[in-house]
Amino acid sequence: MAIVLTVTNQCKYWINKMKVKDFFKWADEEFKIEMELMRVKGEEYTISNEDKLKNFKSIADRLETTPSEVAMVYLLKHMDSIRNYVLNGVEASDESISGRIRDARNYLMLLHAIILESKGLDEKEVDEKVPWFGVTNSSSPLRFTMVDEITMDEASEIECN
């Protein structure tokens, strides 16, 4: 597998394409790295407690908010850094973009665990109750509207209530 980026005048060109088999091999290795990071960093953040989510709950209690909102703050911190990298091509701290992406993926995993725990469900139960494409109800701020293929100009004219 070889992915090479050449940056010239803010343009990025893919020299070699990632093959499917190489992608899954790489993804498996990334997952192993992420889980090792989760174990190592988790020891510090669980505050010597058996509860993997203790840090989120402890901070939520102190800030009078929810563990999921705390997880979102942590996640968004990394997402802002990733966004800055995508927009500007600059790693603005001593942590690499790969490290930020790994941390963001781990925070998504932790957020998922918080959600499962808050609902008293295991992952299988959640997958059986909610289709992967999501469900909204009338009180949800998230709305889906199915449309045929449209241009960006047409999309900008769609009213959101």
Task: Give descriptors for this structure.
161 residues; mainly alpha; two-stranded antiparallel sheet; 2 strands; globular; disordered N terminus
Give the SSE map.
Blueprint lengths: L4 E4 L2 E4 L5 H26 L8 H10 L3 H22 L8 H23 L3 H7 L22 H5 L5
Antiparallel strand pairs: 1-2
Helix pairs in contact: 1-4, 2-3, 3-4
Model description:
The protein has 161 residues and is mainly alpha-helical. It has 6 helices and 2 strands, in the order E-E-H-H-H-H-H-H. The model is unreliable at 1-15 and 130-147 (pLDDT under 50). It has a domain at 30-133. The chain is globular. Helix 1 (20-45) packs across helix 4, helix 2 (54-63) crosses helix 3 and helix 3 runs antiparallel to helix 4.
- Major beta sheet, strand line-up: 1-2
Question: Describe the biggest sheet?
Answer: 2 strands, antiparallel
Number of strands: 2
Uncertain residue segments: 1-15, 130-147
Give the N-to-C terminal Cα separation. Answer: 46 Å
Please give the share of residues in helix. 55-70%
Strand content: under 5%
Gyration radius, rounded: 20 Å
Order of helices and strands: EEHHHHHH
Shape annotation: globular
Question: In brief, what are we looking at here?
Answer:
The chain is mainly alpha-helical. The chain is built from 6 helices and 2 strands, in the order E-E-H-H-H-H-H-H. A hairpin with a 2-residue loop joins strand 1 and strand 2 (11-14).
